[in-house]
Amino acid sequence: MCGIVGYIGPRQAYPILINGLHRLEYRGYDSAGVALLNGDLRVFKSKGKVHDLEELVKHENLSGTVGIAHTRWATHGEPNDINAHPHISPSKKMAMIHNGIIENYSTLKEELLNRGYEFRSNTDTEVLIHLIEDIMVNEQTNLVEAVQTALCQVIGAYAIVITSQDQPNLLIAAKKGSPMVIGVGEDEFFIASDATPIIEYTKNVVYLEDEEIAIIERGQELKIKTIRNIDKTPYVHKLEINLTAIEKGGYPHFMLKEINEQPNSIMDSMRGRLSVEKSIISLGGIIDYQQKLCNARRMIIIGCGTSWHAGLVGEYLIEDLARIPVEVEYGSEFRYRNPVITENDVVIAISQSGETADTLAAIKLAKSKGATILGICNVVGSTIARETDAGSYTHAGPEIGVASTKAFTAQVTILTLMGLMLGHERGTISKSKYNQYIHELSRIPEKVLKTIKQTEKEVLNIAERFKNSTNFLYLGRGYNYPVALEGALKLKEISYIHAEGYPAAEMKHGPIALIDEEMPVVVIATNGGTYDKVVSNIQEVRARKGKIISVVTEGDVTVREMSDFIIEIPETEEFLVPILATIPLQLLAYHIAVMRGCNVDQPRNLAKSVTVE
Ligand code: G6P
């Protein structure tokens, strides 16, 4: 949610900053801006995408070896040129970019208004940079001290970078609740919301912790202090991602690339964790908590969006295989509803980005009540990964498309490994079943590849037929209920077609009223426990002339005869079906969105990493 980039060093800053903004555009894309320092401070801002900013500055003087830049997802104030970042101080000598929300900004603004300050924008950010300069002037402090004093008054989340005309060799960065990475090169520094703008220049990075301020000075070592002026030693991490992982690699969109990466990303999630020959599942990151997990009174899985859907699959899996009670919660609900949590509970937080504010707040609440907290995150070193007691990274590689695809299947893969490991340890699945299951799990990457290859043609037909529909209904039962939810979410977020996911049997308690000859109904009707029941649900749709698109197991006869369109996926164990069945639904959403001319990778109003509640 908002991407920030900064540079100081011997090179020209602008190309680095713009390149960085393109990399971070997935985080927000309603307006963008850049501030460059070369004697004087020049600020350029534009409503729209980074590309619009590039157009705006085409004929401008863009020289300067210090600069900051921002791509925005609006929280305070509509997306327009004025509310875009950077924001400048009253003297116009300092510029600041900000990711996060200053919750007490109106109180701070009122005080500043009373003292005669004027504001051009409706943003909380402009309030903060005014406050910082006000402290410098009135309390005769230097910039670092003023930032410390201001941030001690701030309630909320921030990742900020400040540049000042009076100190051209200095950038100040600080963070709380929003991510910030500093790349440490040879006599140069890079600042960004994640490592993607940095990796082509250096692999050495420092992750700033909450309430830390980085004093980034040309020709000096990186210095870190807290907002309460305690010195910290920067810890340099080595980045493990490479450039090809964050480029489109010949695909028209990141989303399509990421869908096609799933055979590999699922394999990477299992790498070193599953050995079929030795009959072992070993999740190194949580090994010290294995007994605690086995003895858990119950598990609470927390997530938002697609990660919450993965959590639902996890509930079915863990209850089914390991017989431990599981509850699945939205972070945003859990954190505010005074939940009952005890020391015997194990909380599993699922988050692709590892930065989602509501999931993070839910973790903090559960932690304060003494629960054990595990994480399933994709982004290494992310806040949630660091806030949890232990966890397993999904290792799906960077996911850039805003609609989550490979992260979902990787999350489900980790939950499957957990369910099987726990079922085996607790003796709730027999040795022979365990062996059979892990053998089948090891074949999932190859079956995902087969699913992509064999379904794409029919998916394109279906997309062509229904691209102008205004509503879609997705139905599934058991393990396929979360798949229905995820299929509907994918479609609505990137094609803007209204879509609802429903447990198939619940359809008759409401959504059935929507069904007519115009209504496409996607039914996931694979082999398994509820197959016959789903067949009855399909009959109910047919009787009302709904158009039936079924996802079935290869070789299915019954549902085929009842359907208008059929998507066949390979046979597998029932608990592994969600991974396979989700793939054609991702492809369906993708192709419909492309046919409708939508911006698939950056759908309107959405952001990949939601760091506000
Ligand atoms: C946003 C994204 C979704 C994602 C959700 C949770 O809404 O657009 O794709 O599922 O946040 O994000 P997380 O990073 O916690 O998985």
Structural overview:
This protein is α/β, with parallel strands linked by helices. The chain contains 19 helices and 27 strands. The strands form five sheets. Strands 3-2-4-1-10-9-11-15 form an eight-stranded antiparallel beta sheet, covered by helices on one side. The chain has a seven-stranded antiparallel beta sheet with strand order 5-6-7-8-12-13-14, covered by helices on one side. Strands 19-18-20-21-22 form a five-stranded parallel beta sheet, sandwiched between helices. Strand 23, helix 16 (480-495) and strand 24 form a beta-alpha-beta unit. Helix 4 packs across helix 5 (143-153), helix 7 packs parallel to helix 13 and helix 15 runs parallel beside helix 19 (577-595). The longest helix has 23 residues, at 444-466. The model has no long low-confidence stretch (mean pLDDT 95). The chain binds 6-O-phosphono-alpha-D-glucopyranose. The site of 6-O-phosphono-alpha-D-glucopyranose has 15 residues, from helix 9. 6-O-phosphono-alpha-D-glucopyranose is lined by residues 304-307, 351-353, 356, 359, 402, 404, 606, 608-610.
What labels describe this entry?
binds 6-O-phosphono-alpha-D-glucopyranose, alpha/beta, seven-stranded antiparallel beta sheet, globular, eight-stranded antiparallel beta sheet, 613 residues, 27 strands
